[in-house]
Design goal:
Layout (H helix, E strand, L loop, with lengths): L5 H27 L7 H20 L6 H16 L4 E3 L1 H10 L3 E4 L2 E6 L2 E7 L4 H5 L6 E5 L2 E2 L5 H8 L6 E7 L7 E6 L1 E4 L3 E6 L3 E6 L6 H13 L6 E5 L8 H10 L5 E6 L7 E4 L10 E6 L6 H11 L4 E4 L7 E7 L5 E10 L15 E2 L15 H11 L1
Parallel strand pairs: 11-12, 12-15, 15-16, 16-19
Antiparallel strand pairs: 1-18, 2-9, 3-4, 4-5, 5-6, 5-7, 7-8, 10-11, 13-14, 13-18, 17-18
Helix pairs in contact: 1-2, 1-3, 7-8, 8-9
Length: 393
Amino acid sequence: MVRTNTKGKTNYIMIKKILSLFTCTLILFFLSQKVFSSESEIYNKIDVFGEVLEKINKEYVDEINQSDSMDSAINGLLQSLDPYSGYMSPEIFSEMQTETSGEFGGLGIEVTMESGVVKVISPIDDTPASRAGIKAGDYIVKINNTQVQGKSLSEAVDLMRGPVGSAIDLTIRRRGEKKALTFNVTREIIQIKSVKADLLEKNIGYIRLTSFNENSAKQIKKEINKFEKNKNLKAYILDLRNNPGGLLSQAIKISDFFLDNGEIVSTKSRQQSENRKWFAKKGDLTKGKTLLVLINYGSASASEIVAGALKDHKRAILIGENSYGKGSVQSIIPLKNKGAIRLTVAKYYLPSGESISEVGVSPDIEINEENDDFKIKTETDNQLDYAVKLLNG
């Protein structure tokens, strides 16, 4: 009789979590800068952690890789702080630096970790994930035949990587769906074009921004200047749906295009150097024309800064769904081992003084996606259709 050792695997995951908790507890003591009754308590904790490692190495049912266990412990500490902090091994850090060139192989989704599973922040336009039908807010519970539960975000992302042209099955849990959904997605080279523009109804300038990269502000300024030559132009629609964010500098510049003055965003941190405020300069490129901004659950980070600033200044009407709620600043801090940590160092605050974190930006007019066939800027896009009718009404 052959018995599979599922119990051993479960124990291994549990012990990895225990390691994470021990490390988390220990280092959080240092981070919080609290005073102990004696220094011996600190060393006692270090001794306990070392003892746990030794016991696992000697007595755990399966042979383990202590280096991997320590990586898990470090990552456990960082992810206990918030979903956006994490550890990158030298290999993953190197891959990340390659991918920031703007062209990389993958599925085309921005993800985070929530409740032990991978959560989709947003699919990127015209990528395998968006074409397959994956949506913002979906939970990835299985990658091919591997359960995501118990894995770190970096481990899950590694599973989704693979050769260009190869296929992968993603098992999804979606709000409102009783059964899990399975999507077969083929990996491609992802080339992100951040700005798309179109003239709607001959008098509405439509600008879709899919991410905030180094050239986004230049591209939007170019499109606005083109639209402004049209004497019939009466309004703009800025579409930030499924935009996971990007560079803060670009969010500030793009907000400034539509404002004459006032605060755009501020950051607050434990470090004085990270406490900053940014203000609009005089000169609204659109000359005060009516502006509608489309947002949804896939609008995150820099998208929320732009939408929130324009709403607070009553410069735009927001239409759609509540945004994601990622209002924090992460720094990539290199380590001696050539790896790095992604650490939250500050939070964003809107001109009203409200934080975006875990709350997001609410629309002035709530319009939910009408059906499962919904796709941005197609016949099924009831949110854009509503915006156009509102402007022409």
